[in-house]
Each structure stands twice: as structure tokens, then as C-alpha cells.
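Project standup — Tuesday

K.O.: blocked on the structure for the chain from last sprint. Re-posting the sequence here as requested.
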Amino acid sequence: MGAGTGILLIDFIVRPLLKFSFKFYLVGFVLLFLVYGYIAYQALKSSYISEQNTW
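H.V.: unblocked you, prediction finished:
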């Protein structure tokens, strides 16, 4: 997934959810926790796989 695709996803999917979550702070906190948790999981998984495959 490229940077342009990520920007489009943030613009069209996350922005309406954030507008809703500003009214309900617990929903916004959980949403941000899930998004950043997923990003951290992917980063750790990719770094572990790249170190595992190097000789």
C-alpha cells in the first residue's frame, strides 16, 4: 500500500469516524488505540520477519 492510498483511506474512512468520536470521547480513544495498535503490530511484524530471513 502506497502513501497515496493511505492518505485516501485516512481522508475518506477515518475522518467521518473522528467527527463522530469527538462527540463521544471514549469511542475516539478506543478508535485511536486500535489504529495505532494495528500500525505498531505491522511495524513489529515486518521488522521481525526481515531479521528472521537475513543470514
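K.O.: great, moving the ticket to review. The longest helix spans residues 25-53. The chain is about 85% helix and 0% strand.
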